[in-house]
Amino acid sequence: MSILDVRNIYKIYGKDSSEVKAVNGISIKVDKGEVVAIMGPSGCGKSTLLNILGCIDAPTKGEYYIDGVQVDFKKLNNLSQIRNEKISFIFQNFALIKDLSVLENIILPLKFRGGPYKERVNKAMKYLKELEIENLKNKSVRELSGGQQQRVSIARALTQESEVILADEPTGALDEQNSIKIMEVLKELNKKYNKTIIVVTHDNLVASFCDKVLKMKDGKWDNMKNVN
Ligand SMILES: Nc1ncnc2c1ncn2[C@@H]1O[C@H](COP(=O)(O)OP(=O)(O)OP(=O)(O)O)[C@@H](O)[C@H]1O
Ligand SMILES: [Mg+2]
Known about the structure:
It is a single chain. This protein has helices at 46-53, 76-85, 102-111, 117-130, 146-159, 176-193, 204-207; strands at residues 4-13, 20-30, 35-39, 61-66, 69-70, 87-90, 164-168, 196-200, 212-217, 220-221. It is α/β, with parallel strands linked by helices. It has a domain at 1-86 and 165-170 and 195-228: 3-Layer(aba) Sandwich (Rossmann fold), CATH 3.40.50.300. The strands form 2 sheets. Strands 6-7-8-3-9-10 form a 6-stranded mixed beta sheet, sandwiched between helices. Strands 2-1-4-5 form a 4-stranded antiparallel beta sheet, with helices on one face. Magnesium ion is lined by residues 46-47, 92, 168. Keywords: ATP-binding, Nucleotide-binding, Transport.
């Protein structure tokens, strides 16, 4: 059984002449432990699709099953539970809280799961070390460069230790060396814990780390041979 199963999903913005079909009938099945890249030109709907997969946004129509259970996009509780327990998301714009420190940002999502504070900090430190940014832990996000913010947002997602990791341009602000580092960490998590990973990217180097590359164009798959 696929861990993620998307059936004929649409996301339509606006009406009549101003209608935009950001996602225009997409189906995809992703198996547990797969690492998938989604590529395609700017504006083709990659972030919109990933946001739906991450239960951050609801589709206009279509069905979505996670572990065989249909996602009910009308139930906010259901969506936040999925985001809390199953899926962690690396945002294209980092989505960090500027007034908090790096460490505070990273442990914030863990707060909703309870457990001792010390455990949360230990988990955060593990991934800060892995991404070689432990020296940033007490800095305010305001003091960080774009690339540093990107790595903090990745550390925050990894600290949640979810089964599925969705990453929207996780290396967009990074140089080649740091891009490779991020992909190596993601691949290691995939190998060690059988994590399922979907990465939206413009970068062929990032795609080269993935088991499968899917191409999107105008809200659809560009090459149907890609889709299982
Ligand atoms: N909230 C919105 N309201 C109206 N149109 C939107 C909205 N969000 C996205 N769109 C449109 O949907 C289309 C797909 O946008 P999306 O952000 O998914 O593209 P993308 O493939 O991620 O692009 P990029 O590579 O630049 O990040 C675009 O035409 C965009 O203008
Ligand atoms: Mg995008």
